[in-house]
């Protein structure tokens, strides 16, 4: 390994460390990721001929072509995320999720736990685990006034959201990345990961229910007041919900029919929802009260979390530099040697690591470490790629800082790292292992029969 390659690795590891310590440094991880991206490729340009065959002035053009290739691949994920985030924001701001609270309503603590868990699990598969977590915590605040009890429910929201996002091609950023890359298919990941993901949610919920007894106090119902403040009628809110959420469900079908990249389907849904809401807002344009205009798509687009988008851009392009140097392939071969080709152990370890560090660069690194082959564990929808989707998603539940859902719930409900680690970590780990065991049984006994 050359000195230049070692320098690139040091820059990446140092940047990764700063990202992991964001809560201590108080420096936004997007800023660090962008600096990593630029620094890695700048070092790469000191001697690009060591990694790309070329000479003279032609080498600069070849490097530009390589960067543009990686940028194009990265952009498909970014546009997908931007479209999905906007769609969910439009539905939420216009009252599309109000019905969820009505479904959750119950006085029984255990019944509420199961309703919250199941609703979060399936909603996160359609939306994304981060947005679903925010929606469910807001609903919990209306239903559960006692904070010590509410944080137990909130912890279950984290587990259910990560589990639900793992079996859906659009439910988690890492699964979106794998789907966009073409290493898993929508049908494959849903059919084979649904049961393991469900088990990884059911087992923790079953354990946690024994900590909840009795009934909940009557909470103040402000649904009517909030509904009165909405601009759309009940029927219009339902249409917004069906177009937005139904459109998200339709994206994998659109890809299967047209064979176009997933981000094209998400932009189709966004354009349709944008048109529908603009039609609904026509009768409000002449009103003097301009507060309703804050909920239109053109305004909501400015509220997209661009720091998250830039973080993905920086980290994915930095990982692309490592891939181009051949470091990731060498690391993949080393892991295979250490674990003797046991992909259950390799992905299991990656899942545990995803609870400590961000799973986005972990999965991005794995995509660069291992090539897709025609048959076997590394083929499209092979054991490795599907387990990677499961482990990277569900593994993040073991620590509250291990996933975007955990971080946002931690902030909203002020759950301490220590409390979650003492009370929830072992429960999430049991569910995580149970899901892996379920997947192994499916692949060993059910899939061969199906084939």
Model description:
With 451 residues, the protein is mainly α. Helix content is 73%, strand content 0%. It is built from 22 helices and no strands. α6 runs parallel beside α8 (147-166) and α19 (383-394) packs antiparallel against α22 (425-450). The protein is globular. The model has no long low-confidence stretch (mean pLDDT 81).
Determine the oligomeric state from the structure: single chain
Our estimate of the beta-strand percent is: under 5%
Span from first to last CA?
A: 44 Å
Count of runs of 4 or more consecutive helical residues: 22
Largest sheet: none
Order of helices and strands: HHHHHHHHHHHHHHHHHHHHHH
State the helical fraction.
over 70%
The count of DSSP E runs of length 2 or more, i.e. the number of strands, is: 0
- Give Rg in angstroms: 23 Å
Uncertain stretches:
none
How are the secondary structure elements laid out?
Layout: H1 3-20, H2 22-25, H3 29-44, H4 58-93, H5 98-104, H6 109-126, H7 129-143, H8 147-166, H9 173-181, H10 186-208, H11 223-228, H12 234-258, H13 262-280, H14 297-300, H15 306-325, H16 327-338, H17 343-354, H18 359-369, H19 383-394, H20 404-413, H21 417-423, H22 425-450
Helix pairs in contact: 1-3, 1-15, 3-15, 4-9, 4-12, 4-13, 4-15, 6-7, 6-8, 6-10, 7-8, 7-20, 8-10, 8-19, 8-20, 9-18, 10-19, 10-22, 12-13, 15-18, 16-18, 17-19, 19-22
